[in-house]
Structures are given as structure tokens and as C-alpha cells.
Amino acid sequence: MPIDAPAEVIANHALSTDYNVLALAAPAIAAAAAPGQFVMVKAAFGHDPLLRRPFSVFEVLRDDRGTPTGISLLNKRIGVSTDLLYAARPGQRVACLGPLGRSFTVVDPPTEGWMVAGGVGLAPFVALAEALGTRGVASTLFYGARRAEELFYLDVFRRLGVELVLTTEDGSLGERGRVVAPLERRLAARAADRPVMIYACGPEGMLAATATTAARFGRPCQVSVERIMACGLGGCYSCVVPMRHGHGGFHHVRSCIAGPVLPGDQILWE
């Protein structure tokens, strides 16, 4: 069952004028969270904003003994709720409900884990990279953004032993272009008997391109969809995703409970 509790802000680290990482004391949520799950957060206890907002669990925070003590969230300022989270100060309390949703499937060797992130879609991948590393899985992060200043936590992934393949739209760091291009080249060069699981999170166009590319090479792909959620518990139907069903049919699933992690080849992207 998800846990609903006020979580104290431990730290707030500004990454840029738009992005920050907010650390919250939430030991029960941290202990139960799996890579790809999310929490519903509200920074103010009044009526503005009225609703909570979904955030992937970015990191599971632990003490010196390895005991989970809290979680962190990767936040981008785009409205009232995210502005409040950007400005939150240590000691402040925020409403936090979670963990919610379905997580990624963490593979075992010899399968490799290839993570594909676009912009704020980086959010679920620190926790996933840690889980893959714990199992001895070789992992790669294909990470794209508009410019170099929007590529974050690179040293953290390097410390976790993750290979980085970086792209920027303006060519200021890594390859110039979209993040799916180097993924496609890697898949084309990879032998069919070397298994890989592809994980993706980011803008829907990037998810569709990643899932389509993975399917073309016969590789499994799990995507974490970014749908607007009003409740996070399946009650409002604001986050539905069309999925293939039967022979040529389709049905809608609620991404907050059937996802947010879904099989990429089963989503109707058009």
C-alpha cells in the first residue's frame, strides 16, 4: 500500500535556473520504492495548487549503514507546483504519497541494460542504474538534451559504472542530434545473441522513436510514460494510454496503475 505522509525537506540542490534536486526525509517510501515508481507531491498545504503532481523517484537516499532514509526528486520549473518545489527550503514539509505505479524489470547478466533519457526523463534512471549495478549488469545511458548545460548527474552515473553516450541538439556536448540516433547504430552493430533490455523515459516523441527502433531490431523495450496525473491512484482517468489488445484492437489503460512503465511495443503511438 502507498504511504501518505508529510516529508521534511533535507536539502535542495539547484542544478540550473530551471532544474533542481529536492531531497526528502521519507524512510518508509524509500524502503518500498523500486526503480521507475513515482510519488505524488504537493509543496503547499493550502488550495493553491489544489492537486499533487507526479515525480519519479530519482534517488533512494541511505545512511552510512545502507538503511533507506529518504528519496530525491528531479524537478523542472514549469508552473506553480514546480516553482514551489524549486524554492523549497530545508525543514519545510511537503505532502508525499507513494511509492506508486509499476516499476522497471531489473534484468540479470548477461543481459545488458540500456537506458534512454531525454531531458527531465533522466528522473528514473539513477535508481535503475544502482539496481542494475547491484546485480552486476553492464549498463549504458543514452542521454540527450537541448544543450550541454541541461545534461545533469554525469559524474554520478560514471561512479555507478554506467557508460555514457551523450547528445545535444546544439552540439555543445557529445554528438549533435537526437538521442535515438546513437542507440540505433549500437543496435545495428550488436550481435543477435547478445541480449539487451532497453529502458526509456522522456518526451513522447522520443519514447515512440525508441520503442519503434527497439522493435525493428527485435529487442525488448520498457518505457516510462509521462502523462498528466490528477490523482495517481486510478480514480480520475486523466492519464490513459492506448494499448494494443487482441487482433487489431486496442484498449486504454491508466498509466498510474498499469504503468508508468509499459511495454513500448504494445503502445499505440499514433
Task: From the structure above, extract its key features.
270 residues, alpha/beta, Elongation Factor Tu (Ef-tu), domain 3, Rossmann fold, 7-stranded antiparallel β-sheet, 7-stranded mixed β-sheet, 6 helices, 16 strands, 20% helix
Explain this structure.
By secondary structure, the protein is α/β, with parallel strands linked by helices. The protein has two domains: 3-100, Translation factors (Elongation Factor Tu (Ef-tu), domain 3); 112-266, Nucleotide-binding domain of ferredoxin-NADP reductase (FNR) module (Rossmann fold), CATH 3.40.50. It has six helices and 16 strands. The strands form three sheets. The protein has a seven-stranded antiparallel β-sheet with strand order 4-3-7-1-2-6-5. Strands 11-10-9-8-12-13-16 form a seven-stranded mixed β-sheet, with helices on both faces. The chain has a two-stranded antiparallel sheet with strand order 14-15. The longest helix has 13 residues, at 204-216. It is globular, with a radius of gyration of 18 Å. The two termini are 34 Å apart. The mean pLDDT is 94.
Span between termini? 34 Å
By CATH, the superfamily of the largest domain comes out as Nucleotide-binding domain of ferredoxin-NADP reductase (FNR) module
- Strand order of the biggest β-sheet: 4-3-7-1-2-6-5
Q: Write the H/E string, N to C.
A: EEHEEEEHEEHEHEEHEHEEEE
CATH class of the largest domain: Alpha Beta
Q: Based on DSSP secondary structure assignment, what is the total number of beta strands?
A: 16
> What is the averaged pLDDT score?
94
Largest sheet composition? 7 strands, antiparallel
What is the CATH topology assignment of the largest domain? Rossmann fold
Helix residue percentage: 10-25%
Global Rg: 18 Å
Strand content: 35-45%
